[in-house]
Design a protein that fits this description.
about 80 residues, mainly alpha, about 75% helix
Length: about 80
């Protein structure tokens, strides 16, 4: 069942903000922490993944995704 949570809303906003900053500065991060130009696409993809995770957390949908994956892995053993 879906329940809106104000705590997860603010956590999701923070994570989305971090993801947006990461999308903006992925080249600098890849230059300093990765292998430079060859890793630009990998860092950009990770940054977009952080943004998507933040949006899911903002609307408290991450629990539904985790439950869906858990049911796929464990064969529907997770109860709602």
């Amino acid at each position: 069942m879906y329940n809106f949570s104000l705590t997860w809303f603010f956590i999701g906003l923070v994570v989305t903000g971090i993801g947006i900053a990461f999308v903006r500065f992925y080249k600098e991060v890849a230059d300093n922490m990765g292998s430079g130009v060859p890793s630009y696409e990998r860092y950009k993809l990770f940054a977009l993944g952080v943004c998507v995770a933040g949006i899911l957390m903002t609307f408290n949908l991450h629990t539904l995704v985790i439950e869906f994956v858990g049911n796929l892995v464990f064969g529907g053993m997770i109860k709602k």
